[in-house]
Design goal:
The chain is an alpha/beta fold and 207 residues long. It has a single domain, classed as Beta-carbonic Anhydrase, Chain A, CATH 3.40.1050.10. Helix content is 47%, strand content 13%. The chain contains 10 helices and 5 strands. The protein has a 5-stranded mixed beta sheet with strand order 2-1-3-4-5, with helices on both faces. Strand 1, helix 4 and strand 2 form a beta-alpha-beta unit. Helix 8 crosses helix 9. It binds zinc ion. Zinc ion binds next to helix 6.
Length: 207
């Protein structure tokens, strides 16, 4: 597998970019990862990078986007923060990726058994963690409107993880006129997915 070039990046539609990630995850769960020569990819990307997607995921050690989507060097921008929440710096990073570096897809990737989501549901408060977990509150409120489950019920927590991805997608569109503008023009797409830490499978919300 070769690193992406300006030509391969230009030729991709947002849908094609999503297919690359879906196919990569399929290889990952089947243990059929592409045979990449990473050192060769270092050489191929020495003069520039043309990543086709920007992925916002959690810092969780099990959710490395490059690994679970079977991607190599120069393929994706990877933004990671506990609970895959949005902030100004994440938005700026995404805007750079799609407007100046040519990426076609913005993916918000949540995951099951997320420590940040679980802690937010359990109303943990400590140091700077408090402000971070506060960003997950809108998803908790939405989940509470849907069901009467206790907030420490594992099913409730997984629903919050899903809704937290929807919240992030909405926030990206609302707070970034660059991203929402490019999406309206059909040049990029904002999508969401959840990674299952028990199976390695990524479920996209469009499925
Ligand atoms: Zn997490």
């Amino acid at each position: 597998m070769r690193a992406h070039t300006k030509a391969t990046q230009d030729s991709l539609s947002p849908e094609a970019a999503m297919s690359i990630l879906k196919e990569g995850n399929e290889r990952f769960v089947r243990n059929l990862r592409s045979n990449r020569n990473l050192l060769q990819m270092v050489n191929e990307t020495r003069d520039g990078q043309w990543p086709f997607a920007v992925v916002l995921s959690c810092i969780d050690s099990r959710t490395s986007a490059e690994l679970i989507f079977d991607q190599g060097l120069g393929d994706i921008f990877s933004a990671r923060v506990a609970g895959n929440v949005v902030n100004e710096d994440i938005l700026g990073s995404m805007e750079y990726a799609v407007k100046y570096a040519g990426s076609k897809l913005v993916l918000v990737l949540g995951h099951t058994k997320c420590g940040a989501v679980t802690s937010a549901c359990k109303k943990v408060k400590d140091g700077n963690i408090t402000a971070l977990l506060h960003k997950i509150k809108p998803a908790i409120e939405r989940a509470s409107k849907e069901s009467d489950s206790a907030t420490d019920d594992p099913r409730f927590i997984e629903r919050v993880a899903e809704l937290n991805v929807f919240e992030a997608m909405e926030e990206i569109r609302e707070r970034s006129t660059i991203i929402s503008g490019l999406e309206k023009e059909g040049k990029i797409k904002v999508v969401g997915a959840v990674y299952d830490v028990e199976t390695g499978l990524v479920s996209f919300f469009d499925e």
